[in-house]
Specification:
Length: 140
């Protein structure tokens, strides 16, 4: 499992929203929400770091939401690690994939994603309150 972010797709709109390609890759055949998914990467990085803190602080379940579209990953704490349940909230969809992972693997992927977004924003000269808040949430 890895979180794929393409820094060359980073874009800040006139309204200040920062988007880019972001998706989970579970295998070459399995990506969520889809290969090339474009979403609000700074907001997602911040939300996912908050959810990660909740699960490490003992929450039984958290959701990693995607902002653009009816997609989320429910992270369920289990004795042997985490269960990731990928959900598409559309008719005849529901849970489309499940995978068990280690907490350390998910933690590493989310923080790596957030650092890549931070670096890409710096390289592109993009700044905002959202970027500052995301950087504040990153561990040193």
């Amino acid at each position: 499992m890895r979180i794929c972010f393409d820094p060359t797709t980073l874009h800040q709109s006139r309204s200040g929203s920062i988007t880019g390609v972001i998706y989970f890759e579970f295998s070459l055949e399995r990506r969520f929400p889809s290969l090339g998914w474009n979403d609000f990467v700074v907001v997602l990085a911040s939300w996912w770091m908050i959810a990660l803190k909740e699960i490490t602080d003992g929450a039984a379940e958290v959701k990693l939401h995607f902002m653009d579209g009816p997609y989320w990953i429910t992270v369920i704490s289990q004795e042997e690690g985490l269960l990731l349940r990928c959900t598409e909230d559309r008719r005849d969809a529901g849970v489309v994939y499940e995978l068990r992972v280690k907490l350390s693997d998910l933690t590493g992927e989310i923080f790596t994603f957030a650092r890549k977004v931070s670096d890409a924003c710096k390289t592109a000269g993009i700044s905002s309150v959202d970027v500052d808040n995301m950087r504040t949430a990153l561990p040193n």
